[in-house]
Q: What sequence folds into this?
């Protein structure tokens, strides 16, 4: 578990966009539960309080303020697509003792996360990810990157998501083409149109920005 004091923590508060209009809300909630359990396992080295459903289709968890949060949020989007996930990330202190559920905790990081989620909802078009911290310069930079990433990914089709996932696993264009039974040119063109390389580069910059200011990991000497 985490530590109190001046140490920073990242609270992620999210919701499912348009969940009330879902044809099968029960199935959607079950899919969300499975996703959160998978994220708790896959990103267990940075998750400090497991992600769980809080109210309705809202969910929350606490993690180390580590750049890999960007990968965690990307996994949320990819797994539930075409259902849209909106996340507010608050980075700051935790005032209470750590508990098994984040809903039993409190502190500036939790207030920041709620403010970030509200900000995401208020933007036009609504943002898929917002950050809120005590550092205004960080918020401006991180939210600028997040907004542009959201606009690009909003145009991705299911094929773009699936091919991006395979590229993330280390598959090259030749292997993806063979797996799908299509030409290499078809795969290359779709990844290019999706802006895959640019998206991953922008995400890498966002990860570096988080790590530079907040990561608890020892810096290389």
A:
């Amino acid at each position: 578990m985490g530590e109190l004091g001046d140490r920073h923590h990242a609270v992620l508060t999210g919701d499912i966009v348009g969940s009330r209009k879902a044809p099968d809300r029960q199935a959607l909630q079950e899919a969300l539960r499975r996703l959160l359990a998978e994220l708790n396992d896959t990103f267990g080295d940075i998750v400090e309080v497991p992600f769980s459903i809080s109210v309705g289709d809202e969910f929350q968890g606490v993690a180390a303020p580590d750049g890999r949060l960007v990968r965690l949020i990307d996994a949320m989007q990819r797994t539930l697509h075409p259902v849209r996930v909106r996340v507010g990330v608050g980075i700051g202190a935790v005032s209470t003792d750590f508990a098994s559920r984040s809903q039993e905790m409190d502190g500036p990081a939790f207030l920041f996360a709620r403010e970030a989620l509200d900000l995401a909802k208020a933007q036009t078009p609504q943002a898929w990810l917002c950050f809120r911290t005590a550092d205004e310069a960080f918020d401006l930079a991180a939210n600028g990157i997040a907004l542009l990433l959201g606009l690009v990914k909003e145009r991705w089709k299911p094929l773009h998501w699936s091919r991006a996932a395979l590229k993330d696993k280390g598959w090259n264009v030749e292997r993806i083409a063979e797996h799908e039974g299509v030409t290499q040119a078809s795969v290359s063109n779709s990844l290019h149109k999706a802006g895959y390389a640019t998206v991953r580069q922008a995400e890498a910059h966002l990860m570096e920005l988080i790590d530079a200011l907040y990561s608890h990991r020892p810096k290389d000497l």
Notes: The mean pLDDT is 91. The chain is about 50% helix and 15% strand.
